[in-house]
Design brief:
The protein has 121 residues and is α+β, with helices and mostly antiparallel strands. The protein has a single domain, classed as RutC-like (60s Ribosomal Protein L30, Chain: A, 2-Layer Sandwich), CATH 3.30.1330. Helix content is 22%, strand content 31%. It contains 2 helices and 6 strands. A 6-stranded mixed sheet has the order 1-2-3-6-4-5, covered by helices on one side. Helix 2 links the parallel strand 4 (68-75) and strand 5 (98-103). Helix 1 (43-60) packs parallel to helix 2 (81-89). The longest helix is centred in the middle third of the chain and has 18 residues, at 43-60. It is globular. 31% of the residues are buried.
Length: 121
């Protein structure tokens, strides 16, 4: 059985998908972006907003960043890796999740970063 997770405290889906799906004890969170900061040159603010969106969805499901076991980071430019890594890392004080980071040709709304996660209760 699956349960759709939705919060007003994160961007509404822009297509036929859910913000997150809880299946058993596992939460699959769709890639989050900071569309409102897409044209900003403040990449740190954009990454922080993405992480906050993820946190709001996790909270709606009764979880936190500590529940994340896997994340995927998609970057428009791999040259931004260190900056994104700094912001991302600030949300994990210990035992960070498994992760991959890849550069992609383009992201929705022309943002610089998109992050999806899998969390377990």
């Amino acid at each position: 059985m699956k349960q759709i997770i939705f919060t007003e405290n994160a961007p509404a889906p822009i297509g036929p998908y859910s913000q997150a799906v809880l299946a058993g004890n596992t939460l699959y969170v769709s890639g989050q972006i900071a569309a409102e900061l897409a044209n900003s040159s403040d990449l740190k603010a954009e990454a922080k907003k993405v992480m906050e969106n993820l946190g709001n969805i996790l909270s709606e499901a009764g979880m936190s960043y500590e529940n994340i076991v896997k994340s995927s980071i998609f970057l428009k430019n791999m040259d931004d890796f260190a900056l994104i890594n700094e912001v991302y890392g600030s949300f994990f004080t210990s035992l960070p999740p498994a992760r991959e980071t890849v550069q992609v040709a383009r992201l929705p709304k022309d943002v610089n970063v998109e992050i999806s996660v899998i969390a377990v209760k």
